[in-house]
Write a structure and sequence with these properties.
The structure is a homodimer of 410-residue chains. Chain A contains 12 helices and 13 strands. In chain A, α10 (333-345) crosses α12 (390-409). The first copy, chain A, is α/β, with parallel strands linked by helices. In chain A, a hairpin with a 5-residue loop joins β1 (51-54) and β2 (60-64). In chain A, strands 1, 2, 3, 4, 5, 6, 11, 12 and 13 form a 9-stranded mixed β-sheet that branches. In chain A, strands 8-9-7-10 form a 4-stranded antiparallel β-sheet, with helices on one face. Helices cover 35% and strands 21% of the residues of chain A. The longest helix of chain A has 22 residues, at 293-314. The interface between A and B is large, with 69 and 69 residues. The complex binds N-(aminocarbonyl)-beta-alanine (2 copies). One N-(aminocarbonyl)-beta-alanine (URP) sits between chains A (90, 124-126, 132, 191, 356-358) and B (224, 226, 276). Chains A, B: This is Putative N-carbamoyl-L-amino acid hydrolase. Chains A, B: Pfam families: Peptidase_M20. Chains A, B: Keywords: Hydrolase. Chains A, B: One of its GO terms (molecular function) is hydrolase activity, acting on carbon-nitrogen (but not peptide) bonds, in linear amidines.
Chain lengths: 410, 410
């Protein structure tokens, strides 16, 4: 059985590095706190009989041998990186539940049929190095290691250079083919309100909705704010503002709204950042989601059309780069049924489609994959107030343990 | 007579430091290029018989003695700092015209009645350390030296610390009382299209319009872009975008529009700058202008009202700080008539109210002040394409020379 006190003590230990005064976390990929928690993860999992494999994307596989070590391990994975205004549960809970499974096996001297690997996937959030799920994406064949290592943060540091800096660019090639798993289970907080409203500790994840990320570049013309008549301006920031409003209008007032379309601009950069010079260059980051791939495509199309009109009206040039597409998907039926049976034993039967992307999206490209959601307060995440009760965290670990053992038997 | 070739050679020399590949300038207050051009200004003006006074705000007075050195000098001033996307004329031309006057006096062995001081005022643009005209403002009694030295750039460096770093925090107290002038003339590019349309090289500046600068802080709530329903968001960037659009609407569609009201948001900063976390904090810089003080106040009031409605609609908190007020003003009639007579000798009689603020705004608080505008192409400024013809620059210097000698006689 998963131990609630132990699970939560491990979770708190994992939040030793990068916690913020408001109770949240700020542990961006490959910063010094990320290095510290990686060191901790390795030394802790060694105690439960694991050896380690670190791949060229910094993904860490803590492997506990089974009876048949010629088989690839069954993966129990998630991520230890966080948003800049993140909480203590998003990603972290999934790795900790995997560690709790290791501790249960270790304490009970169990040798499983296949080996098991608790995996810390690098840069799941994509907050520092967009896109999200970047390094599970390399493993799953969506991105090349070269592309992923070359991704840059706003200061121009590449992920590859930062992995080297913290000593986590490992020797193992990053791919299913070079370093396979047999299957992948992931526990994650729901990040939505369904379980909280239904008063259930855990839920069964049926699949993940569709996501696209785009960069929008807007070029106007710098000019004096005090002397330039209002009708002679090419104001890139005014154009950007109208695009943000238009994006919101599309997903709240057009046909995609009742079908659950969402679109957000949360990143903006403007130059030359002088209060008396009209902005000449603005960049926006656009996040589009919907249950259906076709709706995500439709929202993107409507955005481009609306943005082009705004550019025409204000004499602006636009570049539009859809740099990430993550289609909607359903998880493996056998895996989902392992989760379903285990959740049922805890009195839970709610099935959910995830609004957020997860590393399991990319592991599912190569191996049978399923996810377990844990209830979180008010559905809040990417905020310091993110919270899951101790007993719910333990319920997540217990469901994982049972689902995993079911699959190991099977 | 002012020499066209010499005036323009001096101007080009002053643009040795901080010029950009696109033909413009990026010489923010107190950066290393600003230090270099200050060193150059002192060594050049020494050649024409000047000694120097540097005050505690880094304002440099290059003083050429007259017959009556118990009199304060007549000031010929402007500024050598630029916008980040600035041109080679805004401010620089005014200092260079003063230097040309010195060279004419020197070459002709003239000893004027009163001493003359060519002044380089610190941080006129306000681009790095808002507000604008900060250090002529201290001299004119609008700001305390303590306030001005404490102003910070976005990285948190104070103007005082930066003045010390480049060796330009001088020993002279910065005030009219401690370091008086007798009067202040300033040549500046028009930064508007009137002279260009009228095909006149120079114009007479009657006064300066009204200006206010404000900082707007918007606080929402960070949340996941993928899992947070559109109707459950407190999106600070969406609110900010609506404020930018509303600001533009006020000055283009309400009663202030035909009266020449202008308002611009050109500075935006958003946190946490992660593409999948809804922005929780945004700051905006708001620049409001109009010929009448009452219209600037009205625009501010309309903005606050509009912004408050937006905050209510989106569950946002707002702080609004009007940190700078520069009322409309008219220059001294005697000084303006000296400019008028001199411009008339060059066939120019157009009177203009400046849309931009200038150091002369603050010198006029203490001493008779007037300005001469020089034609600039298409009225463009705060842009690398800013341009004034060589003969127009020389016409500015010639008008300054004549107006100044008129006042010295008088
Ligand atoms: N779980 C989570 O927040 N993942 C980040 C990827 C996304 O934006 O959906
Ligand atoms: N001349 C000039 O651009 N001054 C800067 C102050 C202002 O914004 O008007």
């Amino acid at each position: 059985h998963a131990d609630s006190a132990r699970t939560n003590a491990t979770l708190q230990a994992a939040c030793t590095w990068g916690n913020t005064p408001d109770g949240g976390m700020d542990r961006l990929t490959c910063n010094n706190d990320d290095k510290s928690v990686r060191d901790w993860f390795i030394s802790e999992t060694k105690k439960y009989g694991c050896h380690h494999r670190v791949d060229e994307m910094g993904n860490i596989f803590a492997i506990r041998p089974g009876q048949n070590n010629n088989l690839p391990p069954i993966g129990l994975g998630s991520h230890l990186d966080t948003q800049p205004t993140g909480g203590k549960y998003d990603g972290i809970l999934g790795v900790i539940c995997g560690m709790e499974v290791l501790q249960v096996l270790h304490a009970n001297n169990v040798t499983t049929y296949a080996p098991v690997a608790v995996v810390n996937w690098t840069n799941e959030e994509g907050a520092r190095f967009p896109p999200a799920m970047l390094c599970s994406g390399v493993w799953g064949g969506e991105f090349t290691a070269k592309y992923a290592q070359g991704r840059q943060d706003p200061e121009g540091n590449s992920l590859g250079a930062e992995l080297k800096r913290i000593g986590y660019m490992g020797p193992t090639p990053c791919s299913f083919e070079a370093n396979p798993l047999l299957a992948h289970f992931e526990v994650h907080i729901e990040q939505g309100p369904i379980l909280d409203v239904a008063e259930k500790p855990v839920g069964i994840v049926r699949g993940v909705q569709s996501i696209r990320w785009c960069n929008v570049g807007i070029t106007g013309r710098e000019a004096h704010t005090g002397t330039t008549p209002m009708d002679r301006r090419c104001d890139a920031l005014l154009g950007a503002a109208k695009m943000i409003v238009e994006t919101n209008r599309i997903v709240t007032e057009t046909e995609v709204a009742p079908r659950g379309g969402r679109a957000t601009i949360a990143v903006i950069n403007s130059l030359p950042q002088s209060i008396n010079t009209i902005a000449g260059k603005v960049n926006l980051g656009l996040d589009i989601r919907a249950p259906a791939d076709s709706d995500v495509a439709l929202i993107e199309k409507q955005c481009i059309e609306g943005f082009e009109k705004i550019c025409k009206q204000h004499g602006l040039e636009m570049s539009f780069d859809n740099f990430w597409v993550s289609p909607a998907l359903n998880f493996d039926p056998t895996m989902v049924s392992c989760v379903k049976q285990s959740a049922a034993e805890l009195g839970c039967d709610i099935e959910i489609v995830s609004g957020a992307g997860h590393d399991s999206v990319y592991t599912s490209r190569k191996v049978p994959t399923a996810m377990i959601f844990v209830r979180c307060k008010d559905g809040v995440s990417h905020h310091p107030a993110e919270f899951s009760r101790e007993e719910d965290c333990a319920a997540g670990a217990e469901t994982l343990l049972r689902a995993y053992l079911r699959y190991d038997d099977y």
